[in-house]
């Protein structure tokens, strides 16, 4: 994800959510609708989430230190994980509590035009934010489906904003449905049911976000296309004849570690091998610019031993297949 693209989507979402949160809370004060209160807390939580994403992006740009020699790129993953926790605790659980209380103690909605007007305004604002996130994501998504993009994206910001905005739009529709049914039937229980549905929706989105960002925190390999480019760049067919082992790891969304054991000719001199390794590093950086840390080890490949299976280190392990 380009920094500018992600930041633009986050700022658009933050601006929309702050305006919507204020409008929803005013509508709650005038109408007493629990759906409006849940939605105002939801928008406030989303605003905090976008603030966390911006903070994580800023902190991730710090230079590497002796204590953190690979830099701070993963801070973007940590703050994205915090977003999922905030969305769950502040947004989802509060909405479920409010919905339960409204169902248990229902009351009529007053000044109906406030919640209805604010919900319509919020849907328009959230649609604008969602459209911005989609527009910024499309160049990176390529031919992937949206589900694949969210699962495979190494930069967490755009998937987080996409899911937040989608959840906000669906939540607003649920709130509008709850308020509409409460007004049409004169039964405030429907308002509480709408609030409960919003809470369940937010918890589901929070779980999805937590699962995806947890995987990034644990450390994910490079994508299949990048792995193929690196493998092609490593082998020159002269001194480097094949890749014996290779491991890749994202140190951050735009920082990749590459470690590989390479087969070289047994009769090459140390100077020839060193030159071949340096050339391979240069080819990797040209093919995959985000490869920042590269560690290459030359070795002699024993094809006969590998075929007999007496030396497993001579061949890639089954679990090394590119994802």
Characterize the structure shown.
The chain crosses the membrane at residues 6-30, 77-97, 112-134, 160-183, 189-211. By secondary structure, the chain is mainly alpha-helical. A three-stranded mixed β-sheet has the order 1-2-3. The longest helix has 30 residues, at 75-104. The chain has ten helices and three strands, in the order ααααααααββαβα. It is elongated and about 90 Å long.
Write the layout of secondary structure elements.
Elements: H1 3-31, H2 34-59, H3 75-104, H4 113-141, H5 146-152, H6 157-185, H7 189-218, H8 224-234, E1 240-252, E2 255-264, H9 270-287, E3 291-299, H10 303-308
Parallel strand pairs: 2-3
Antiparallel strand pairs: 1-2
Helix pairs in contact: 1-2, 1-4, 1-6, 2-3, 2-6, 2-7, 3-7, 4-6, 6-7, 8-9
């Amino acid at each position: 994800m380009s920094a500018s693209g992600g930041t633009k989507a986050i700022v658009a979402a933050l601006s929309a959510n702050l305006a919507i949160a204020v409008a929803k809370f005013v509508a709650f004060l005038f109408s007493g609708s629990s759906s409006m209160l849940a939605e105002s807390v939801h928008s406030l939580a989303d605003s905090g989430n976008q603030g966390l994403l911006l903070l994580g992006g800023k902190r991730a740009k710090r230079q590497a230190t002796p204590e953190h020699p690979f830099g701070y790129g993963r801070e973007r993953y940590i703050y994205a994980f915090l977003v999922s926790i905030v969305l769950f605790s502040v947004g989802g659980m509060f909405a479920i509590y409010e919905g339960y209380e409204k169902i248990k103690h229902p009351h009529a909605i007053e000044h109906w035009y406030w919640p209805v007007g604010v919900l319509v305004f919020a849907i328009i604002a959230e649609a604008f934010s969602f459209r911005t996130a989609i527009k910024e994501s499309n160049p990176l998504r390529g031919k992937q489906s949206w589900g694949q993009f969210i699962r495979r994206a190494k930069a967490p910001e755009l998937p987080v904003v996409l899911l937040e905005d989608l959840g906000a739009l669906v939540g607003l529709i649920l709130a509008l449905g709850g308020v509409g049914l409460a007004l049409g039937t004169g039964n405030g229980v429907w308002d509480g049911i709408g609030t409960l549905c919003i809470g369940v929706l937010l918890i589901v989105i929070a779980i999805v976000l937590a699962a995806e960002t947890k995987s990034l925190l644990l450390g994910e390999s490079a994508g299949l296309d990048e792995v193929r480019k690196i493998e092609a760049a490593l082998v020159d067919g002269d001194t480097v004849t094949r890749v014996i082992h290779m491991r890749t790891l994202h140190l951050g969304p735009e920082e990749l570690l590459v470690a590989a054991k390479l087969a070289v000719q047994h009769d090459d001199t140390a100077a020839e091998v060193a030159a071949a390794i340096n050339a391979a590093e240069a080819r990797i950086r040209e093919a995959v610019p985000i490869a920042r840390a590269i560690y290459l080890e030359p070795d002699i490949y024993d094809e006969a031993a590998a075929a007999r299976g007496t030396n497993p280190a001579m061949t890639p392990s089954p679990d090394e297949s590119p994802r």
